[in-house]
Amino acid sequence: MISLSPVQSLLACCLVLVVGRVLTSQIGVLRRYSIPDPIVGGLLFAILAYALANWGGVSVSLETSIRPTLLLLFFGCIGLTANLKLLAKGGPRLIAFLLALVPFLIMQNAVGLGMAWLLDMHPLMGLLGGTITLVGGHGTGAAYATRFADFNNIQDVMALAMTSATLGLVLGGVVGGPVAEWLMRRHKLRGSLDPQASAGPAPLDMVEPAAPPTAGSFIVSMTAAFVCLVVGGYLAMLVEGAPVSLPNFLWCLATGVLIRNGGARLGLKLDDRATEIIGTISLSLFLGMTMMTLDLSSVARLAGPLALMLIVQTLFCALYAAWVVFRLLKSDYEAAIMSAAFCGFGLGATATAIANMQALTRRHGPAPEAFIVVPVTGAFLVDILNVIVLTSLISLPFVGGM
Predict the structure, then answer these.
(1) Which of 379, 387, 320, 381 is nearest to 347 (CA)?
(2) pTM of the shown model
């Protein structure tokens, strides 16, 4: 057996991230569907480790005790970038988008629970094939998977969570564009670039980038992130044993929201770019370590039920976006673009949603309201709503009883 120390494990994880970065930048399909670098590199490491253990007789052991801290740092940084003042800019479309999102979260979990019942799986596995991974992504999926493994003793739960979140990224990128194109053809909608080239607001990806954050801004953001960990951990300890159990990461996220929006009154200014980089690094290291330690034999056992569950979820999300989201958002060009974005983070992540919108606006023309509503919703509102829905469902006796 090869046992790596904490520093050696971090080095191995960093190398995995570098390899994943190279592969996602060079392989078109990985770049097109925004597959995360740690997922690609970590999965490659897991395959090599599996082959080495089964055919070479040598197993690799990593020191991963830092993983929970990295995950909490990530959610703390999400809260620290949640600017509540942006909510006013979204106007009626933001409210309509949220009105469409809340029942979707409930119904997507209902679909997951129904599929778990049909496939004779634990109900919590249905939630993992629902909004935990498809809306929450890898970070939320890993957080709940760890919780289910510790408190419910469910085997192979991390493998299901990571695989479901990864496939969700691909599916969200695949169906979003076709849904929007179908809506535009059906309702004869056109963007500013369809009849002829015209002036308009520049798409998000064409805005000139600002100067990079400084070392000082990183230090301030890192300090705030660790405050989120300490305060969030203390709050979680205070409510331990309460009738309704809330995950630790929610307290860290909530602390970050309070610091971000209440700190201005005390003269505290955070650089969102520095905070986002810290959060991205924390999540990348966490996911890298998680993927590196995946049991691929467990993934193979779950492949059939998981594939069937995701196919049903994809069909449901596409139909919901086309027939509910589009209508609630005024059934115009902006609504079609946001319907594609809805598929993006309804199955994958905010990055997938924005990628869907960028691809469509480059072809058809700008959609300025969409680029306000979707990032604001995907940045933190969807996570808060998702946790509320999940906490309510998990507390039900026939689901988890927690």
Answers:
(1) 320
(2) 0.68
For 181, 325, 365, the CA distances from 322, given in Å and listed in that order, are 11, 6, 20
Two tokens, residue 381: 């509102």
CA distance 267 to 98: 32
3: three-class secondary structure by DSSP:
strand
What mean pLDDT comes out for the span 382-398? 84
CA 279 to CA 71: how far, in whole Å? Answer: 9
Name the CA dihedral angle for 8, 9, 11, 16, rounded to a multiple of 10 degrees: 140
Question: CA 36, CA 44: separation in Å to the nearest integer?
Answer: 13
Contacts of 335 by beta carbon, 8 Å cutoff, 6+ apart: 183, 325, 326, 327, 329
Beta bridge partners of 61: 3
Percentage of the chain exceeding pLDDT 70: 86
Query: What's the chain's Rg over C-alpha atoms?
Result: 21
Residues 6 or more apart whose CB falls under 8 angstroms from that of 349 comprise: 34, 137, 138, 168, 169, 172, 378
10, 129, 182, 265, 310 from 111: Cα distances, Å? 38, 9, 24, 44, 10
Strands (E), 207-299: none
| Cα angle 322-386-107, degrees, rounded to a multiple of 5 | 45
Query: For residue 7, what pLDDT is reported?
Result: 92
Q: Which residue has the tokens 């969700």?
A: 168
Please give the pLDDT value at position 151: 72
pLDDT of residue 351: 67
Q: Which tens digits make up the pLDDT trace of 85-107?
A: 766 666 788 888 889 999 999 99
Does the CA dihedral 207-369-187-195 come out positive or negative?
A: negative
Q: Which run of H or of E encompasses 61?
A: strand 60-61
Q: In the numeric block, which tokens belong to residue 56? A: 């070479």
The tokens of 332 are what? 């115009």
